[in-house]
């Protein structure tokens, strides 16, 4: 395992200097899910929630969060994202909403944090909109499943 990179020569926290890194295409894909009662999922699917279209609001929240990741995560570089996609798929078999966030950039550093933030905030938004009817929801298994580009190249979950 490589050493942590957010420490300077004196061991203090610092933003990584990417000045000398090449600008390359980079992409990250993150997945997660929000588990809930079947009745809650039914409300979401049928659009019967009194707060409105839960999935559309959560998708927009995830996109906005990805764009502002550098404001939320200390030492994270501000990136000019070229693509953000947040997919929210109702899964009746598991009584959940599956989340997939995909972020793209041509830059000097990766977009894993942006995709993780997008998926997390989308899940939190679903929870916020539905908590009045289901306080037992859980936001589970938010994890990186694939990254492309940069010095380390292509990585996919399960290929370690």
TrEMBL record:
Query: One biological-process term from Gene Ontology?
Result: Mo-molybdopterin cofactor biosynthetic process
Domain named Molybdopterin cofactor biosynthesis C (MoaC): residues: 15-150
In terms of InterPro entries, this protein maps to:
MoaC, MoaC_bact/euk, MoaC_sf, MoCo_biosynth_MoaA/MoaC, Mopterin_CF_biosynth-C_dom
- Residues reported in the UniProt entry to bind substrate: 75-77, 113-114
Instruction: Give the top-level enzyme category.
Output: lyase
Q: Which Gene3D superfamilies match?
A: Molybdopterin cofactor biosynthesis C (MoaC) domain
Q: Name one GO molecular function term.
A: cyclic pyranopterin monophosphate synthase activity
Keyword terms, alphabetized = Lyase, Molybdenum cofactor biosynthesis
Tell me the domain of life. Bacteria
Q: Sorted alphabetically, which SUPFAM superfamilies does this protein's record hold?
A: Molybdenum cofactor biosynthesis protein C, MoaC (SSF55040)
Q: In which pathway does it act?
A: Cofactor biosynthesis; molybdopterin biosynthesis
The reaction(s) this protein catalyses: (8S)-3',8-cyclo-7,8-dihydroguanosine 5'-triphosphate = cyclic pyranopterin phosphate + diphosphate
A family per Pfam: MoaC
The catalytic activity of this protein is classed by the Enzyme Commission as 4.6.1.17
Query: Any idea which residues are catalytic in this one?
Result: 128
Subunit structure, briefly?
Homohexamer; trimer of dimers.
Q: Which NCBIfam families match?
A: moaC (TIGR00581), PRK09364.1 (NF006870)
Q: What does this protein do?
A: Catalyzes the conversion of (8S)-3',8-cyclo-7,8-dihydroguanosine 5'-triphosphate to cyclic pyranopterin monophosphate (cPMP).
Q: Which family does it belong to?
A: Belongs to the MoaC family.
Under which name does UniProt file this protein?
Answer: Cyclic pyranopterin monophosphate synthase
- In its UniProt entry, the species of origin is given as Marinobacterium lutimaris
């Amino acid at each position: 395992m490589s050493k942590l990179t957010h420490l300077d020569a004196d061991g203090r926290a610092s933003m990584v200097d990417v000045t000398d890194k090449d600008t390359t295409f980079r992409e990250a894909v993150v997945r997660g899910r929000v588990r809930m009662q079947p009745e809650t999922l039914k409300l979401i699917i049928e659009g019967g929630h009194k707060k409105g279209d839960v999935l559309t609001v959560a998708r927009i929240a995830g996109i906005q969060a990805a764009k502002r990741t550098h404001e939320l995560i200390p030492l994270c570089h501000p990136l000019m994202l070229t693509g953000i996609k947040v997919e929210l798929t109702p899964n009746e078999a598991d009584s959940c909403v599956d989340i997939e966030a995909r972020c793209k950039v041509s830059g000097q550093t990766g977009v894993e944090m942006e995709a993780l933030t997008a998926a997390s905030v989308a899940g939190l938004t679903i929870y916020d909109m539905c908590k009045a009817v289901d306080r037992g929801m859980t936001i589970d298994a938010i994890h990186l499943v694939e990254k492309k580009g940069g010095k380390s190249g292509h990585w996919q979950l399960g290929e370690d």
